[in-house]
Predict the 3D structure of the following.
Amino acid sequence: MPSNEPPAPRTKDVSIGDIRIPDLFRDLPDAVIIADETQRITWYNTAFQTLFGYSQQELIGQSAEQLYAAPQSYEKQRSAGFSVAVEDLDHNYEMRYKRKDGTSFLTRTTGGPIRDKEGRVMGLFAIIRDISQTRAIEDLLHRLFDISTDQALDQSGKILAILKLGCAHFKTDSALVSWVQGERYTILYSYSDLVDIPRGTVFPLGDTYCSEMLNSGGPLACHTAKQSQFGTHPCYDLFLLETYIGVPLIVDGEIFGTLNFTSPEERHPFEAGDLEVIKMFAAWVGQQLNFEKATNQLPTETTTLT
């Protein structure tokens, strides 16, 4: 009796001349996936495994549908943009996929049929690049620009709006702008869902994570303090802050203080790009502080804040 089982995936045997198709894509830095004409996955490279979170053979023979963040996106690509029957179609598009853990991300995808010299379809391919971080930074820049040019906000309102935006981006509860004089750490601006710290509140610099950050000379981040060098820091004993990301604030070309975002809860690990993003936030806050300095609103060494 004939079997009801679909034929085994065969893309792994497809070659161009003496070169097997997977060998062309194996070492590319972008994720590459190959499927047969029915959208069953036959091969993917190491970069795909890293991006999507699957092991080497876990998806072989399964439908590509499970990779799409929205079922309707799969149907649209199956019936149009990724169809083996479509000729002369632009196969470069943005698509939102989902990882094995269920998280979704935005990509720039190039995909289409793989054909032999006679035009016969041998399979389908897609080259996938994660652009979610790039798009997020673009969106942040637009929002920061909107805040800085909002005529309804004064300088203080703009800084607080930037701090609120930073908390949302870094998934933290609180944000501080500090003025550092020697070992004095003075709060200038505070935004928090948990507790309000009044302007002019002073802490010993050594009791803050920012002391470590300033010693490092650049941005510093920690997503679980108790399992890091911060676990024995005085700040952890005093405030039990698990999450911290901070950076020096530059005003008029000199270090003026710090910008930091914190939370008593752990979060997923920071990425290298987050250290660049907080420098971007610091540049915008520093710009507002420069405006304050130009109008004599910024504290100086002889200023006492109350």
Observations:
- The radius of gyration is 26 Å.
- DSSP finds eight helices and 13 strands in the chain.
- Confidence is low (pLDDT under 50) at residues 5-12.
